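Researcher: Sequence recovery benchmark, item below. Answer with residues only.
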């Protein structure tokens, strides 16, 4: 059984603490929210520090809380020290500590596993999200058509797979990335689509949720993958109009798009 100790740190105790690459990115909105919470209620949750056999201390959880308390000039921090055998055990402690509170997003898991040097997650951060420094940097990399949750789902799979650390990239990964990059650059700016949205509303097009079943079908359809990028773009523009006209009360939800896109491809002989 691991040794666990509850104690208090002062500012000087944090001077040489290591912040690992697998730690979640800093979200300034979270820091500000925690500042207000600490002002009103005090520190209700401890900062988690893992200690390696060589006495290296790792800030395992509570970076946002530490920054919030630092901003309001706190000088005393409630800390839990957990003694671990190596940094991998510290990372697992970070995930376990947060899973219980259900505070980790899929992106947090991606960043954590990438820091743990799992190749699929590393490649996703480097190639798909283009080596972002934080979540703000990662947003809108491929336009508002592809949200971060959508990109994670398209390239790394369902949330349960992503969070298990067992995601593998698609065999046609390079081709799928090429299609995503092209659609991200051209779908929302296409003249036909722009005019349709002016007539029918800005939401009458594919979005971060509904692009997922579309890309899933593209990934499994060799005929579409062998088409030129511009042809795939025109296919999705045609489909957008098709979907809008296919139901009396059109909505571009994931389930609705999944159904009509299958029918659309059948009618196109794809």
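Model:
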């Amino acid at each position: 059984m691991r040794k666990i100790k509850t104690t208090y740190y002062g500012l000087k105790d944090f001077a040489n603490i290591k912040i690992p690459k697998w730690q979640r990115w800093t979200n300034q909105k979270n820091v500000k929210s925690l500042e207000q919470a600490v002002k009103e209620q005090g520190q209700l949750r401890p900062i988690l520090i893992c200690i390696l056999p060589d006495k290296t201390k790792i800030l395992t959880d509570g970076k946002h809380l530490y920054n919030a308390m630092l901003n309001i000039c706190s000088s005393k921090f409630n800390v839990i020290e957990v003694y671990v055998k190596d940094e991998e055990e510290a990372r697992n402690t970070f995930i376990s500590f947060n899973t219980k509170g259900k505070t980790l997003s899929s992106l947090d898991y991606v960043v954590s596993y990438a820091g743990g040097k799992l190749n699929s997650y590393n490649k996703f951060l480097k190639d798909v999200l283009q080596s972002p420094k934080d979540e703000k940097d990662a947003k809108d990399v491929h336009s508002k058509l592809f949200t971060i949750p959508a990109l994670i789902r398209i390239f790394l799979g369902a949330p349960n797979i992503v969070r298990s650390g067992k995601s593998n990239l698609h065999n046609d990964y390079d081709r799928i990335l090429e299609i995503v990059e092209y659609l991200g650059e051209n779908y929302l700016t296409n003249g036909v689509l722009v005019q349709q949205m002016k007539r029918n509303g800005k939401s009458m097009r594919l979005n971060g949720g509904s692009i997922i079943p579309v890309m899933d079908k593209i990934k499994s359809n060799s005929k579409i993958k062998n088409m030129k990028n511009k042809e795939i773009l025109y296919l999705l523009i045609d489909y957008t109009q098709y979907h809008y006209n296919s139901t009396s009360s059109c909505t571009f939800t994931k389930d609705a798009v999944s159904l009509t896109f299958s029918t659309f491809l059948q009618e196109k002989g794809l």
